[in-house]
Every structure is written in structure tokens, then in C-alpha cells.
Design a protein that fits this description.
globular, single chain, mainly alpha, 17 helices
Length: 411
Amino acid sequence: MSAVFINRVVRVLAGTLGAQLITIGVTLLLVRLYSPAEMGAFSVWLSFATIFAVMVTGRYELAIFSTRGNDEFHAVVKLVLQLILVVSVVVAVGVVLAEQFVSSMPGVVGEFWLALALVSLGLGANKLVLSLLTFQQAFNRLGGARVSLAACIAIGQVSAAYLVEGVSGLIYGQLWGVLVATVLAAFWVGKPLFVACAATPSRAVRQVAVQFMNFPKFSLPADLINTVASQIPVVLLATKFGGESAGWFALTLKIMGAPISLLAASVLDVFKEQAARDFRDTGSCRSVFLKTFKLLALLALPPFIAFWFVGEWAFGFIFGEAWAESGRYAVLMIPLFYMRFVVSPLSYTIYIAQRQNLDLFWQLALLVLTVACFTLPVTVDAVLWLYSVGYAAMYFIYFWMSFHCAKGDVK
């Protein structure tokens, strides 16, 4: 693997590791400031915010890496900014109406509807800014942006715990952190870029909206389904087994899922730029795909093997007896987390090859599997083990699809 590629990964990873340490560190405080039930309620609210955050960009931010020329690039960025504002307003109105007419709407969602819409806007804008930093190959700033997001959320949630009671502290802390971190990252992108985007004529914006229609047509439904599939377990656990189970599960995802996602995202930030360039130049990105796969697979093995033996004990020791159950959940879900770490960054080749329809079919199957796993079994252990093994099998299929897209031979 080229020294340039590894150097870029290390630069992004440095910032990512900082964000990971902040996330874990603040969690040690949060589990002592909030109960499992309060963490469960917040996780339900955040699940809805995360789902809506996928919608606000229309997934057009992915089209940035497929643009040719500055005019096309600026038009796509302006399109994404307009969508973020418009769709966020629609989300706010939709949640207010749903609260009036949908009896099954979680109370925490309806109560904090404005914060929900603003966090969705902030998360969507943050994704755009991170994509712009990647496009600029500003990998040091990209790492800094990830650290600032984790740090701002941490400061907001810990501070809010002493100002307001209950779940509202977690929600308002999340809101403050996301908005502040996104504004900081936007400064790193640079004012000239946004000025150029603002000057882009509406006609050019409409043209790129049509040109890259496959992203909202296929990527948006696929990613929305994927996000629902990843977020709905918290909601279903809270409904079926109570708020405490949802809180334990949420801690498992935060401690296991967030660091894994951040580390994999560091590789993805570099992989997608080089893979897209190779695919444009040669019609294939097979070489960098295989090299990245080997790197991820070998990197993940030692920590996951060790966690199999000490994971349950480690959770109880670090977070306290009230959260020991989260460690048992984490061990049950090792197959899922390992496959997610290895395969998720590589799946970007599906977007590069513009075979979003394949991704959509896979995401639909994943959603069906997830709902079945969380509704059919009658015990928490059975739910989590079936979910973990089934998810790992689906990721194996995802890897096969991504590899064939990387070769450029999927028609």
C-alpha cells in the first residue's frame, strides 16, 4: 500500500482517536449523571434525529466526489445547502403534526420536536462540511473537525446535566454541541468556497440535481433504510423490554459502535478519494480495495479476540454495576461489530460505480432482518444473538457486492 495513502489514514486517524477518547471519557461521566432509563429515552430521541439527518441532504453530498470541474462542484454544494434548510423545516412541521395524530409517537420525540429538527439540520450540515474537507484533501482539518464534534457534544451534555434535569440535559447538550462544531468546521472549509457556491446560478443547481438524480433516487432510500435498520432496535427494545434495556443497549452501541465507526470512517475518508480517482482513471479500484480490506481485517482481529474474553468484566469495572449488562450485550454482538468495521468503508465502491440500486436491495433485506430479529424472539439474549449473526451474514453479502463493483464489472 502506498506511503501516501497510509500517511493520509494516519493523519485522519489521529483526530479520530482524539474524538474516540473524548466519547469514551464523557460516557464515564454521563453514566453517573443519568440513569439507564434516561439514557434510553435520549437514545430513542437521537434515533429519530439520526434518521431525519439522512433525509435533509438528499444524499447529494455523495455526488461531490463525482463532479467534474469547479462549476459542477459549486452547484452540488449549493444544492445540498438548500435541501438542508428546506427539509429541516419539513421535518419540524411533520413531527408537530405526527404528535397530534399518531398515538404511538414516543413522548420524548414530540416534547423536544424543535431540538429534533435543529439537530437534524446540524448533523446534515456537518456531513456536508466533512465531505468538503475530504474533497479538499485537508485531512488534518478533517481529523480536527471530528474531535471538535465529539468535544462540543461532551461539553454540552455534561454542562447541561447541572443546569436542567433528566433527559433534557442530554438533548440540549447534543443540540449545542452539533451546531457549534459544525460552524467551526465550516470556517475550516473556507469562506471563498461558500461565496462561490452562493454565486452559482439556479439553472446550474437544477442541472446537477437532475444529473446526479441516482443519489436521491437510490442512495437516499438505501441509506434511509440502513439508518432505520440501525436505529430502530433502540426503539423496539424500549417498547418490548423497557427503558433500561434500551439504555444498556445504547451504551453498548456508543462504546462499541461509535469508536468502530470513527476508526472505519478515518479509512473511508482516504479510501473513497483514492478509489474514486482510480475508478475515473482506469475503470477499476480493485487494487486499493483489496489492500484496504487486508488492512482492516488484520487491524480488527486482536482487539475483538481480546474483548471476547474480557468484555463483560470490563464494562462492569469501568461503568459500574448498574451498567454491567451492557458488557454482556457487547460480547453477544462481536460478529456484527467486526464485520461492520471491515466492510462498511469498502462499500463506498457501490457509490463510485453508481450501482445504488444494488445497495437499495441489500438495505431492504437488512431492514426486514432487523425487524424480524427484534420482534420474533422472546428474550433479550435471543434477540441480540440472532441480530448479531444475521447482520454479520448480511455484511458478507455486502462485501461480495462491493468487490464486484470495485472491479468495474457489475452491469
